[in-house]
Write a structure and sequence with these properties.
Layout lengths: L1 E7 L3 H14 L6 E7 L3 H14 L5 E6 L5 H11 L4 E4 L4 E2 L4 H11 L3 E6 L16 E3 L2 E5 L5 E5 H7 L12 H16 L2 E5 L5 E2 L10 H15 L2 H13 L12
Helix pairs in contact: 1-2, 5-6
Length: 257
């Protein structure tokens, strides 16, 4: 069972365009969508509800509505805990995935059952420094490399149970995905599990490919907010400390497996 976890905050037009393309191009079946809205403006929320309602004709959509912006990490953690799938899928709400993207990820997973996370980056794997990636190998008819579980990804609930949630103490937005990826890699290395990224598949952010680049006030405000938050020196210091100390974080599943 696959659960597609989607987090939104305003930008209803962008969300609808990206998710519509990704839904139609996925190439394989998804069992449920778990959607968390992080306190969008009333007019944006109304549009988002209508769009997500249209998806419900094809598959179950579980709706979680926050009264205010709780931050990216709290939002995603809520979707993870609500989801029921053995596999959890995260694409972001503004990435344009390539044709048959989910089918290709599943073909890689089927080719090697020791893989617990497959990622798809927003740039070609050759752009990633060599020290952060392994050699290319062929799995399930696709080229993959061992690389940080980052960006769009599908990962096992077993991995989530082992490493826990995203940190929620980076504020509304921060480098928590990097910290979680480091935790995931450490556990996989200890457990003999694998983590790979697709070598030849790329997911564009909506705007990067020339479609509505940062269009509208909500989109411009969102990108400025992300840039401001991610460059906060205190968050970068916290990330450095977490990585050096191998610091764990809240795991609601500890003791369950």
């Amino acid at each position: 069972m696959i659960s597609w976890c989607i987090l939104t905050f305003n930008r209803a037009d962008t969300v609808a365009k990206a998710i519509t393309q990704n839904f139609t191009s996925k190439g394989s079946f998804v069992d449920e969508i778990v959607w968390h809205d992080n306190g969008s403006k009333p007019e944006e929320k109304k549009l988002l509800e209508a769009f997500m309602g249209s998806l419900q004709e094809a598959l179950p959509v579980t709706k979680i509505m926050a009264p205010k912006n709780l931050g990216v990490d709290v939002g995603y953690n809520r979707t993870f805990s609500t989801s029921r799938g053995d596999w959890i899928l995260v694409t972001g709400c503004d990435r344009l995935m390539p044709k048959d993207w989910l089918l290709k990820m599943l073909q890689v997973l089927d080719a090697d059952t020791s893989i617990h996370v497959v990622s798809l980056y927003t740039k070609h794997i050759s752009k990633v420094p060599e020290r952060l990636r392994g050699p290319e190998v062929s799995l399930g008819g696709h080229q993959v490399v061992e690389a940080m579980p980052f960006g769009a990804r599908i990962f096992s609930r077993e991995l989530l149970h082992a490493v826990g949630y995203l940190r929620e103490d980076f504020g509304l937005y921060g480098p928590s995905d990097i910290e979680w990826a480091e935790r995931a890699m450490r556990h996989c290395d200890r457990a003999g599990w694998k983590y790979v990224a697709m070598a030849d598949e790329i997911a564009d952010h909506l705007g990067d490919e020339g479609i509505n680049p940062h269009s509208g006030a909500d989109s411009k405000e969102y990108h400025e907010f992300k840039q401001r938050e991610i460059s906060d020196p205190s968050k970068l210091e916290k990330l450095e400390w977490c990585l050096k100390k191998n610091y764990p974080y809240y795991n609601p599943y500890s003791g369950e497996i």
